[in-house]
Amino acid sequence: MSSAMQELLDILNLERLEHNLFRGRSPQVGWQRVFGGQVIGQALIAAQRTVSADRHAHSLHCYFMRPGDPLVPIIYEVDRIRDGNSFATRRVVAIQHGQAIFSLSASFQIDEDGLDHQISMPEGIPMPETLRPQREFLASEVLPENIRRYLQRRRPLEIRPVQVEHYTTRNKLPPVQHVWLRTVGKVPDDRGLHAAVLAYFSDMTLLDTATFPHGRSAFDPKIQMASLDHAMWFHRSFSLDDWLLYAQDSPASHGARGFARGSIYTRDGLLIASTVQEGLMRLRKK
Question: Is the model's pTM score more than 0.90?
Answer without folding.
Answer: yes
